[in-house]
Amino acid sequence: MLFNSFAYAVFLPIVFAIYWALKDQYRWILLLIASYFFYMCSGPAYGLLILAVTLVSYSSALIIENSPDKKRKKLSLICAVCVCMGILFFFKYFNFFSGTANDLMRLIGIQQDPIILNIVLPVGISFYTFQTMSYVIDVYKGVTHAERHFGKYAAFVSFFPQLVAGPIERSNNLLPQIRNRHTFDYEKAMQGVKLMLWGYYKKLVIADVLSKYVQKVYNSPHDFTGFALILATLFFTIQIYCDFSGYSDIAIGTAKLFGIDLMTNFKSPYFSGSIREFWSRWHISLSTWFRDYVYIPLGGNRKGKIRHYINLVVTFLVSGLWHGANWTFVVWGGIHGLAQVAETALIGRKETKNMVLRAVRTIFVFAFCAFAWIFFVSHSISDAFYVITNCLDGIGNPITYLRYGFAYIGFDEWMLAIYGPFILIMAAYDFISIKRDFVEWISSKNRILQWIFYIVIGLIVVLFSKKGVAAEFIYFQF
After folding, report:
1. CA dist list (Å): 476 to 211, 244, 323, 473
2. How confident is the model at residue 476 (pLDDT cuts 50, 70, 90)?
3. List of residues 6+ apart from 253 with CB closer than 8 A
4. Residue 372 confidence class, pLDDT cut points 50, 70, 90
5. CA 21 centroid distance within chain
6. Which of 222, 323, 336, 379 is catalytic?
7. How far is CA 268 from CA 7, 104, 279, 284, 433, in A?
8. pLDDT tens across 200-230, in order?
9. Active site includes 149?
10. Which has the closest alpha carbon to 47: 198, 160, 145, 190?
11. Is the Cβ–Cβ distance between 330 and 355 less than 8 Å?
12. What is the pLDDT of residue 332?
């Protein structure tokens, strides 16, 4: 079930009404039933898969906490991690590694057909397997206690607002909120509605509209040249941010309707003054996950400069692979890892208070991220290199270069006049959000101004969003 579907528009109000009508001790049951229904709308068998992951992680955590035997604790941890990673590997990476192994064997003269499984990647599998793994690891480290109530733990794993594409919640944040009693808070609910509206604005008005032009170019990049390639890349840079952060806004806003606070997942990433800062603002739940469970266990920055650089690159290579079973994602992750190494070696962690220098750095970071997204969105490494090597064709005649770029992609002056300001509104929202949450900021203003803003945003969503079949969110494929 998609957040931007008619089914969700019916599902959410019903669950919301029943939730607050129930006595507090029964609400977790509704959340569990609603979450499994929500997930199984994508495929009934998916319910069995998430149930299996839930059972294994729940049992392993209890064994770890209750057993005095250190070997048994470690064995239970290994079992849980292997099951989670095994399921993830089977569904997401088996065909990738089978094909890669076959390519390597061909290089040494061994010819055989690769084993390819005809399976569909279950939506959200990368998110809830990581969430359950972090829970078991935290219990093993003594960071949190094992949850003894299976039903409430299952509700934590499957909580529908963040089930499919995060945020990847830690147990010490979400589990207590599943357990705790809640009273309806009108202000929090309205904050949630406002956040959802903004998420729909980013997804329906900006991301879904730009996706048409991105797909047109990147589905067959060799049919295009020059500024059309740059324009499609810039559009994807905006699209993926609006698509994914829009999902996060809707998820966080939905959770607030039920009195639950999820962690912030995006915080104006394209206004970052360094690559390191970008990753502290982009997909924060995943960035902190890799920091805590990959980078720090590898040694972080505690074992010398060279080891620190290696740990950075390895962490980002793994992060790239997490995003998809394709070498393009690995290269994308590697580019970011190497960029962080270069940045650390050249300027360290120094922040600048000089506004001009900060602006220059911000432009550079945005340009770098746009360049790296070429590998992320391309279907193959060769397609990515084609875009890079042909995007400046014809730049010797700048006016023609720009005019033909817009014409080839089909984005005319009328579209620019309409959607250009919409993108600027999004950028202004993010700029204000650098230092203060925008919803809180505008709530401090005149009430008439608040209502004007949200009514205008609502009208834009109704009038200018892409109509027709609800488009999936990009991160559903991960």
Report:
1. 15, 9, 10, 6
2. low
3. 191, 192, 193, 194, 195, 196, 197, 199
4. very high
5. 33
6. 323
7. 31, 42, 11, 11, 7
8. 999 999 999 999 999 999 999 999 999 999 9
9. no
10. 160
11. no
12. 95
DSSP, residue by residue, 36-59: HHHHHTT-THHHHHHHHHHHHHHH
Cα gap 64→138, rounded to integer Å:
10
pLDDT at res. 163:
87
What tokens appear for 104 in the block?
Answer: 């390597």
H-type helices in 114-226, by residue range? 125-141, 150-158, 160-163, 171-179, 186-200, 208-218
- Close Cβ partners of 320 (under 8 Å, ≥ 6 residues apart): 329, 330, 331, 332, 333, 334, 336
Domain ranges of the chain: 6-183, 188-273+351-477
Place of tokens 């589990």: 175
The SS3 assignment for 444 reads coil
More confident residue, 300 or 287: 287
Tokens found for residue 94: 């088996």
